[in-house]
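Exercise 7. Predict the structure of Nudix hydrolase domain-containing protein from Parnassius mnemosyne.
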Amino acid sequence: MKYYTKSIRNLFVSYCNYSSKLRTHEPHQFFVGEQDRFNGVTINTAKENCDKTCFSQRLEASIGKWISERKRCIWFKVNIKDASYVPILADKGFNFHHARDNFVMMFKWLPNDSEPNLPPASHTNLGVGALVFNSKNQLLAISEKHYEYAHWKLPGGYVERGEDIIDAAKREVKEETGVNTSFLSLLTFRHQHNMMFGNSDIYILLMMKALSENIILSHREVQDCKWMEVEEYVNHPHVHQFNRLIIQKANNYIKKNLKLDLEKTTVKWAQFTREMTYLSVNDCDYNI
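Solution. The predicted structure, encoded as tokens:
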């Protein structure tokens, strides 16, 4: 019993001594950051600049404070101008989570009694491809640069952050071929792994109607582009098997007057409102 009483007393004294050390630091010697709902803290170096000579000391004091407050995950959003902080953070046990054009996000999980329970970094790319028909029922085919083999493919590319799928398809077709389009139907999507940067890849195929037919080639990306008869495309030796499947899907939807539509709605939760796009199946009298 005496042993346990002594251990508790020692633990209490240690805590008091540590609390006393914390009180010797001025408030400006700690990083403030923003609290999150998971009892974590995010520090943005662009908002809390600190000279490199005192960064390590300030970081160590802050970590001690966060431990005493039983914080969970500490996030550091390191602006590219503050890149010199990265090795200091790494030396203090911070790991990389994700990066963008002008910052890298690093994290340190504080609890010793649990494993990190964090959202994964982005691991899936999202792209769009467009099957574009003109008034003559021809489709728009392109041959891109930087391919090692002959091919005729559909225009398309990656969806940008904050961009809707339909808008991305219109933009990609316009950028690559100069053709304006309108949305008809979603056709299908493919899902693959171990693609660019080791990420998974989702590619959504849309059926589009040409609003203009004059081709203005993007010489940066596209080697050749033309309107091609459907039969020629389907039977061309340089057309991928999956793209032949896309043509079949489009023909089936047209024959059945079936449309896979992408509709938008506003959804309200307890504390926030979000716009979302969802899939709906509708009848459609195609007039291509």
